[in-house]
Amino acid sequence: MKILVxxxxxxxxxxxxxxxxxxxxxxxxxxxxxxxxxDVVDKIKxxxxxxxxxxxxxxxxxxxxxxxxxxxxxxxVIHFAGFKAVGESVSMPLKYYRNNLDSTLTLxxxxxxYNCKKIAFSSSATVYGKPESLPxxxxxxxxxxxxxxxxxxxxxxxxxxxxxxxxxxxxAILRYFxxxxxxxxxxxxxxxxxxxxxxxxxxxxVATKELDCLNVFGDDYDTKDGTGVRDYIHVVDLAxxxxxxxxxxxxxxxxxxxxxxxxxxxSVLELVNTFKKVNGxxxxxxxxxRRPGDIDACYADNSYAKEKLNWxxxxxxxxxxxxxxxxxxxxxxxx
Length: 335
Ligand code: NAD
Ligand code: UD1
Fold this sequence. Notes:
seven-stranded parallel sheet; three-stranded mixed sheet; binds nicotinamide-adenine-dinucleotide
């Protein structure tokens, strides 16, 4: 079975390619390298000892997609490609709507042309907005607070309309909670060049002394210690969830959404303290004002994914902290 992975050199995409190749799937990647580096291709090959085709190209370009589908018999697509920075989407909404929507529409049109009607799509827990209760179930009301989240919600709607129009489609909407961690090899992971927006990349840069001090955004939330609570999930567990989703969509038609989270909520301070303990490093922090738009707590009810995909996260918060640090130390040593 041959799987086209859009955004396959990115953070979650690269880990998923490793799991796909390890599970015996053939892989074809398209990525325009707008937020990833070409050396990831060789790293995936090194980890898996398997070869695959990589196309450098933009998903908004119909011609490159047409070329990929004419040169390869694609059985299913995992669609990761897109922009994902919430803050930037607020200041540059058109950039986000253009890239995330255009790329998806072009992809779906070409898939339709080649009669490839199986897709797993990267959505996000951000589509639950400010949830009324916890844990979050898939049938909770959906809303968003920023253009990035709105692109996810619009794409979910496009996919539902597509399925209504033609129920030969088979579609898995995967709503990720907070992916962190990295592959055990230390070869692939997440290490943004700019000042990170998300918590774990920031903690790591404080630990490596690239940044001075973590700003903890608020300690007056209605949570166990007042700091924000999230459902952190190891990226390798998340990647394995995609294999289960692919198995499902290869075998049956339909459309469904699944929460991919561990079901456990950890606070900012719990994550910082675990990171310090397992890595034996200091992480300086100070409490600052809340970040606008943040919610108190967010964690998944993952029973639907357990039941329907036969998937469950295995790795804990200590593995996530160790592997995130190991990847960045390893890449800094090679600089
Ligand atoms: P990432 O930025 O590391 O990977 C996305 C990849 O897509 C990058 O390699 C980028 O170069 C590529 N890309 C972007 N636009 C493209 C285009 N038009 N054509 C071709 N390639 C393009 O992001 P990630 O963390 O791996 O996230 C993957 C997906 O999961 C995204 O859709 C993201 O919105 C979603 N998601 C991520 C998180 C998270 O915390 N990382 C959480 C929820 C959902
Ligand atoms: C963010 C995005 C969300 C996206 C998710 C996964 C925002 C507002 N939301 O969610 O749409 O789906 O990433 O990519 O950006 N924190 C600090 N200091 C920091 C950074 C974060 O205290 O420097 C706190 C936050 O207040 C929050 C927790 O850490 O309580 C996690 O933050 P983050 O990693 O940015 O993820 P989310 O806010 O859950």
